[in-house]
Design a protein that fits this description.
Length: 178
């Protein structure tokens, strides 16, 4: 029995200590990944996901930088547009890590569902942009919340978007993101 216990312990040690590295995605791969996750989440089977995957693989194999180009009517135009707008924000904020991107999108959809349940229509890109600030630049996020409390949010954000203002570097860069 002691021998079996030691064998089981060595087995578990090997399982637990094997690092699994997930390669980082390029911006084009993030676009394709986000689009496919959106299709799984929102299209509910109305889009042929395999066709989208094959198209992206062909584009990647041909060395084309824009994997979504040429999809045409295979996907809803609004899904492609949203994926293209979200991807740069997620690519920069999540460092191209697919696990972090997936977790981020799941949280965004949950927050949107909660808002919709309360009768509040949300723009996914605006929610994503705020979430990037909250999750990646937490200090800057709290700096912005202080602006909300003081009632100066609108003029400070406008100044940052115009390239002016006295805010942290992270907040200034974030304000310039689409």
């Amino acid at each position: 029995e002691k021998e079996a216990s030691e064998l089981a312990g060595r087995y578990l040690d090997k399982i637990v200590h094997i690092p699994i590295r997930v390669p980082l995605l390029s911006l084009a791969d993030v676009e394709a990944y986000v689009l496919q996750l959106m299709i799984l989440h929102e299209a509910q089977g109305s889009v042929d996901l395999e066709q989208v995957r094959l198209h992206c693989d062909e584009q990647r194999g041909a060395g084309k930088p824009a994997l979504l180009d040429g999809l045409g009517d295979a996907i809803p135009a609004e899904s492609q547009a949203l994926a293209e707008r979200l991807s740069p924000v997620l690519y920069e904020g999540m460092d191209g890590n697919p696990r972090r991107i997936k977790r981020f999108l799941n949280e965004m959809w949950l927050r949107s569902a909660f808002a919709n349940a309360r009768g509040v229509a949300v723009d996914h890109t605006a929610v994503a942009k705020l979430m990037v600030l909250e999750q990646v630049h937490e200090v800057a996020f709290y700096e912005m919340l202080e602006w909300v409390r003081s009632g100066t949010i609108e003029e400070r954000l406008t100044a940052l978007q115009d390239g002016d203002g006295d805010a942290s570097v992270q907040l200034a860069r974030w304000a310039q993101m689409e």
